[in-house]
Amino acid sequence: MRFYFLKNLRWYVIVLASTGLISAVNAQTFTSSNLPIIVINTNGQAIVDDPKIVATMGIIDNGVGVRNNLTDAFNNYNGKIGIEIRGSSSQMFPKKQYGFELIDDLGDGVNASLLGLPAEEDWVLFAPYNDKSLMRDALAYKLGRDLGRYAPRTRYCEVVINDTYQGIYVLIEKIKRDKNRVDINSLNVDENSGVNLTGGYIIKIDKDTGTGGDGWTSSFTPPGRNGTQTIFFQYEYPKADDITSQQKAYVQQFMTDFEFTLKGTGFADPVNGYARFIDTESFIDYYIANEVSKNVDAYRLSTFMYKEKDSDGGKLNMGPIWDFNLGFGNANYCTQGNPEGWVTKFNTICPQDYWLIPFWWDQLMLDPAYRTKLAARWASLRANQFKTDRIITYIDSVYTVLNAEAQQRNFERWPVLGQYVWPNYYVGPTFQAEVNWMKDWITNRLNWMDLNMPSVITSTSESNPELSVSAFPNPFSKEITIDYQLESAGTFGITLFDLLGRPVLTASENRVQAGTYQLILQSHSLPAGAYYYKASSASGSASGKVIKCE
Length: 550
Prior knowledge:
Radius of gyration: 27 Å
Structural class: alpha+beta
Number of strands: 21
Number of domains: 4
Mean pLDDT: 90
Strand content: 15-25%
Number of helices: 10
Shape: globular
């Protein structure tokens, strides 16, 4: 079968070339790659949305730095799969994405490691089409893992289906309960009482297309609703076909109790409030991941959460994160292309959308303890994992690999560069232009979040307006100029604080008369990020917020 496939492929190329029918965009010109190659043969069957069809799949991966050829033996996987088209709005694109399951000759699922990822049976072949950087999803999952959370692992590859080259794909771990994915207890049909009943569960908020579709409606309508919109929770694990009536009743009641507590007057009580239901840190990390990307689908679509068994803590965790092809400025509706603004305000900006955001996120921000944790987490991330240069370096590393050759083939197969594909905010003429624009957008987004993120420092402002202070440029790099005006003679002092309230830079001057002055602060030793300043004189005090760039 393998020999016949390759022989037939080479014959087809020769025939087309001899007749003048082959061109640069023809799939049959693909013979080798610096990326792993996935070859799928459906034996004449069409791949449909549902049900899965049985096909064969082989993977060629000769290792780092070694070229992969279509004529090479399948050395990473060679066997049967059940495959179907997946996705919702993405199904309208000609480049399809697929979900597949590794199966044996009897059709039963089998676990196997693909391209070095932990063994499992369920996988996704994601098809970047309207994301012409080819990397928004992979980048988001990388950031999710940098948060110390599970986020799907990924591998780039090139795909051939039924002798036809399909372009660059991203092999992604499907979200499911597994020791190497969402690591929670299994829940069997006979576990309907006691501690066994309490977990684990995976719940999602999403459209009712694709998997799932069965669940229950929240007791609280989404803020800003202007129609019949509701928040609908779906059973992800156990699946709707497997979950028992007792398990349904338990998880529904748990979520109802959480929402009523969060909405109640004592919601912020550290013992009896919302904190007894949720892992607060997971909510903060989920918020940061979705806000950094300004993911238009965040909190309302492809939104996963899981509940642990009570013996393992029993709390509701947000995540894993999922579906970011419209993130990082790639959507032209509801202000999502603008690097400024919070995604949590989506309901106010787009109340006409059917899928709205639950009240949770605005309510949590009313708790000072939550805001303090968020500020501290953001400050820590910006000083380390989420430093702008670290993110840009990762993007550049992916660009180098894809730009070497694979992106040219992909965009010959799917000539979308320079063309609007719904819902692009930016349309670049080249792959490099698309990537550069995304890097600029991310830099601006991080700077805006630095300026607008709630801070641990809550009381630097003073009511006395007699001291006039301004700082420029803002954002700054190597130095920042402080422009100030004294109403009377005396000293002037200024201190910069990081977001945790620690003083990092102090300067002062003694002036013999009133007037307008400038003070230049050298900031070479300060890491990039957001800072507060507090200035004082005999006239009064003033404060503000500044950003240091890389």
